[in-house]
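Field: sequence (string)
Field: structure_tokens (string)

Example rows 1 and 2, in order.
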Amino acid sequence: MTRMAYLFPSLLLALTVPVSPLSGQQEGGDEARFQLLMVEYESAQTRLQEVQEQTLEAHPELLDKQGSLQELVVTAMAEIDPQAEEGIARLETLQAEAQEAQASQDGARMQELMAEASTIQERLQGAQAQALEREDVAEAINDFQEAMLDGMKAVEPEVEAIVTRLQELTDELMQLQTQLQGGPGGR
């Protein structure tokens, strides 16, 4: 995983839906609808990821732009938190260690590594949020996203419809999840 993935899971327009365990008191219809929407969401997200990968392969200049953006953000984060670069490097090391622990089926080591990674990610999120507010960083992100979207449109003319549908699915899934868990608007 690259530093970009740690810092900007959404930079390449990837969307996520927080999914947590649902209570045992779900109505069958809502639960079934939730599952159907998740299947559609995962399918659309997979397609978007494929388009992103094809776009980066077809437009190597976007990889350069992504690398420059990454450097700008890491530099901004380091100005805010001098330990940010060290934290990012440690996350990369933890990933490799986690792969080894997973391969050897060492659950205790996996938990230990995940706890350390979580602590580092929490600390980095504050520096990242502040860095993203900087005008130069925000402008560079916007430029990259526009260039990426233009490239994606060349690969898949329907990319905007896919992104729009993912956002609709995200909203619908979050609302349905709240209802299933008995939150506001739920039981």
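Row 2 begins here:
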Amino acid sequence: MNRTLLAATLVAVSLAACGRKDEPPAAPPAPPAAAPAPPVATPAPVTPAPSAADAAKDAADKAVEAAKNAGNAASNAASNAAETAKDVAGNAASAAAGAAQTAADAAKDAATAARDAAGRAVEAARDAAAREPAEKK
């Protein structure tokens, strides 16, 4: 029954299509001239997204570079601090040498003054000893 119904439907559609003659439709009127199309923008080249391994490698490279820069900065700072300490130590040594020279000069002056005072004391003692026997006579 299904085949019969299908065959009958097919025959009916075929006969209906063959008996009918359609006239070709009239050509539609030409559309008015349109404005020129805007220029098509060329898309930017698409770069593939970096993989996680590439991103990790780039991050590691940047970290290594930053560590090198930090090491160089620390080295420069230590070198500058050592140079400054050397200069300060040199200045302190010069100041200490100047102070020692000043102290030595003061000691010489004090020794000279003490010698002169001792010499005057000896002279005074001699004069006093020379006068005493004369007064007793």
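free_text_note (row 2): The chain has a mean pLDDT of 79.
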